[in-house]
């Protein structure tokens, strides 16, 4: 619980990393859709500001006067000098990345200012928050010319209270979003995905009672299939209240008393139909306080490991997965909507999946909620990717905050079974310490789920065989080992897959979290020819045969469901700034390898559980 409402909202903070100071946490309100809310989605006025002229003066000092864009100042006379105007600068849709809404912004990295006006009549004795699903990467938020605060991290939610700053008419919300990459950031400057900037997820005004239910957890106790453990957290002046937790369908109702901090923990037995991919049963759960009521749809299942097995509801399961980036299925750019989630998860199900790896950062909430409903198990991840500043305490704090914001948002989702704390990070003392801290953080913030990381193994030749061993020292702290390998693409040949054997230093389950190769949809040739569908299909065939021989393999999430944009992929006519390892093209066409994996998963499903 200790981290459940931590949120990296920097109320002070300057313009550069040097002046930034973390540490002021605003409460994160969960389950926004169940609250009284007003959407601020739609067209916003925008100003593209590559030099931050709306924020700093020519001596690089923060602007305070009317030149600061957040003032939204209008000239008072014809001699008044004002060099910006939101109203005539054009519009972009929120939510949405800016890169795919305007051709000139495709590669843009820098600041862009958003402005949206609204009227709001607040009901008496209510409080109002402005909630952002996410903005990449840094957001500076202002209401009616005054700063509300800042948020760092491109993929997690944040909110600010605006109760005392609202006017009935003519409010203007201004947000400067900056997606400049930074060496000390999470992720750092080097990735293999598009740095989509902007307010990429919904913006919502949330109205709650003066004392409201800020967050709660209602989940099965670790290892149990009939004991519900949980807690409720109130926020507001009247913290000591009687609260009840009800599951009407089961007739369950538990009454609690919150303490002076507004907190109450509970535990009770329940006879439940367990959630599983085969039967994604969700119960209506009501949390009712004296002043507030929140309703959620919650599934109950247990997830654990025993030796090299992963147990869902106490029974071994093989995770038939696929990795997914957060890109829209049928249009360019970031995904964010329920429809996007339905199509992406629909393709995964068509492939025969019971599992997805949402790489390499927290995806939007619609995705995990849809996974709950469709019965798809989920691996969630924070963007601790390749190399970051392992020695930098601010970088660690940033990663911890992103992890905790993700856990807070999703800790009631049955589909969520694994938190991954890192992807392909180089072994070393500082990195080991950094990751151990994150693993410990994930375990203590949410003991009911498993923790993993996508590692890389070491290999050697021996008597004509290629021997690969998983021996990363941080694996001893993980529940499940992830491993990425690209035999037949970046290393060795496809034929080498047939002489490869895997071992592990640890008695733990393995998920092969990546393998694959690029193919341009519709490009055909023989199975030796790079970038053809035939090469990719052959690679999958040999990979799957090799994977079958790994005795401790309990799942896989090949790379990747759909082609995705990446600035690293420059080859004309083939890549054109897309990573082509998708089983589905960027236009939704299925490649040959899709059907190779589909057949394998079909057989696997017959021979294994749920
Ligand atoms: C990896 C990375 C992933 C890349 C992929 C590739 O190992 O984890 O982010 O996109 O390889 O296609 O090279």
In brief, what are we looking at here?
The chain is an alpha/beta fold.
By DSSP (H or I, 4+ residues per run), the number of helices equals 6
Percent of residues in beta strands?
Answer: 25-35%
Number of strands: 34
| Main beta sheet strand tally, sense and closure | 8 strands, parallel, barrel
Taking pLDDT < 50 over at least 5 consecutive residues as the criterion, the unreliable ranges are 1-25
Indicate the radius of gyration in whole angstroms: 25 Å
Structural class by secondary-structure content: alpha/beta
Shape: globular
Helix content: 10-25%
Mean pLDDT: 95
The kinds of small molecule bound in this structure are: (2S,3S,4S,5R)-3,4,5-trihydroxy-6-oxo-oxane-2-carboxylic acid
Q: How far apart, in Å, are the first and last alpha carbons? A: 31 Å
Strand order of the largest sheet: 22-23-24-25-26-29-31-32
Explain how this protein is built.
This protein has 610 residues and is of the alpha/beta class. Helix content is 15%, strand content 30%. The protein is built from 6 helices and 34 strands. The chain has helices spanning 338-350, 365-374, 393-410, 429-445, 533-548, 592-607; strands at 9-10, 36-39, 42-49, 91-94, 111-118, 126-132, 138-143, 146-152, 158-161, 171-178, 203-209, 212-220, 227-235, 242-247, 252-257, 263-269, 283-288, 293-298, 303-306, 309-312, 315-316, 319-324, 355-358, 377-381, 416-423, 450-455, 458-462, 465-470, 481-484, 500-504, 510-514, 553-556, 564-565, 578-579. The protein has an 8-stranded parallel beta barrel, surrounded by 4 helices. Strands 1-8-7-10-5-3-4 form a 7-stranded antiparallel sheet, with no helix packed on it. Strands 2-11-6-9 form a 4-stranded antiparallel sheet, with no helix packed on it. α1 links the parallel β22 and β23 (355-358). α1 crosses α2 (365-374), α3 (393-410) runs parallel beside α4 and α5 packs parallel to α6 (592-607). The longest helix is centred in the middle third of the chain and has 18 residues, at 393-410. The radius of gyration is 25 Å and the shape is globular. 50% of the residues are buried. The model is unreliable at 1-25 (pLDDT under 50). The protein binds (2S,3S,4S,5R)-3,4,5-trihydroxy-6-oxo-oxane-2-carboxylic acid. Residues 192, 360, 423-424, 484, 514, 559, 579, 581 line the site of (2S,3S,4S,5R)-3,4,5-trihydroxy-6-oxo-oxane-2-carboxylic acid.
């Amino acid at each position: 619980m200790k981290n459940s409402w931590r949120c990296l909202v920097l109320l002070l903070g300057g313009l550069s990393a040097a002046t930034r100071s973390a540490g002021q946490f605003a409460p994160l309100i969960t389950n926004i859709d169940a609250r009284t809310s007003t959407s601020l989605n739609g067209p916003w006025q925008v100003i593209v500001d590559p030099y931050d002229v709306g924020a700093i003066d020519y001596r690089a000092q923060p602007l305070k006067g009317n030149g600061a864009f957040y003032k939204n100042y209008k000239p008072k006379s014809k001699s008044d000098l004002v060099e910006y105007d939101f109203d005539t600068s054009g519009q972009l849709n929120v939510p949405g990345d800016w890169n795919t809404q305007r051709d000139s912004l495709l590669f843009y990295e820098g600041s862009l200012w958003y402005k949206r006006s609204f009227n709001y009549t607040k009901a008496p004795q209510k409080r109002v928050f402005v909630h952002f699903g996410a903005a990449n990467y840094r957001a500076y938020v202002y209401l009616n010319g005054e700063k509300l605060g800042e948020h760092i991290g491109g993929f997690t939610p944040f909110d600010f209270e605006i109760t005392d700053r609202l006017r009935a008419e003519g409010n203007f919300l201004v947000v400067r979003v900056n997606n400049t990459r930074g060496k000390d950031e999470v992720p750092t400057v080097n990735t293999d995905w598009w740095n989509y900037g902007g307010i990429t997820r919904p913006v919502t005004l949330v109205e709650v009672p003066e004392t409201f239910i800020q967050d709660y957890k209602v989940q099965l106790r670790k290892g149990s299939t009939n004991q519900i453990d949980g807690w409720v957290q109130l926020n507001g002046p009247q913290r000591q209240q009687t609260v009840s937790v009800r599951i009407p369908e089961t007739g369950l109702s538990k009454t609690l008393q919150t303490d002076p901090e507004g907190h109450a923990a509970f535990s009770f037995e329940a006879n439940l139909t367990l959630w599983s991919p085969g039967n994604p049963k969700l119960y209506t759960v009501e949390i009712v306080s004296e002043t507030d009521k929140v309703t959620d749809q919650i599934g109950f299942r247990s997830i654990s490991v025993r030796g090299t097995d992963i147990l869902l509801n106490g029974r071994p399961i093989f995770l038939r997965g696929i990795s997914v980036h957060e890109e829209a299925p049928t249009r360019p750019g970031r995904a964010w909507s329920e429809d996007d989630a339905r199509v992406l998860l629909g393709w995964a199900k068509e492939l025969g999946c019971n599992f997805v790896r949402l790489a390499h950062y927290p995806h939007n909430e619609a995705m995990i909620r849809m996974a709950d409903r469709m019965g798809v198990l989920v691996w969630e991840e924070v963007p601790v990717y390749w190399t970051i500043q392992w020695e930098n305490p601010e970088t660690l704090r940033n990663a911890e905050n992103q992890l905790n914001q993700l856990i807070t948002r999703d800790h009631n989702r049955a589909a969520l079974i694994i938190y991954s704390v890192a992807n392909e990070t180089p072994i070393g003392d500082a990195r080991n310490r950094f990751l151990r801290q994150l693993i410990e953080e994930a375990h203590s913030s949410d003991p009911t789920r498993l923790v993993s990381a996508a590692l890389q193994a070491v290999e050697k030749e021996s008597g004509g065989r290629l021997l690969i061993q998983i021996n990363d020292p941080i694996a001893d702290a993980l529940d499940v080992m992830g491993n990425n390998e690209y035999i037949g693409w970046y290393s060795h040949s496809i034929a080498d897959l047939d002489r490869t054997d895997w071992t592990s230093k640890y008695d733990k389950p393995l998920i092969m979290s990546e393998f694959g190769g690029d193919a341009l949809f519709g490009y055909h040739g023989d199975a030796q020819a790079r970038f053809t569908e035939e090469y990719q299909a052959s690679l999958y065939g040999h990979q799957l045969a090799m994977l079958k021989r790994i005795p401790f393999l309990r799942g896989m999430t090949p790379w990747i469901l759909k082609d995705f944009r990446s600035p690293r992929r420059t080859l004309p006519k083939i890549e054109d700034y897309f990573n082509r390892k998708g089983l589905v093209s960027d236009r939704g066409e299925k490649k040959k390898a899709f059907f190779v994996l589909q057949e394998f998963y079909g057989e696997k499903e017959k021979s294994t559980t749920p």
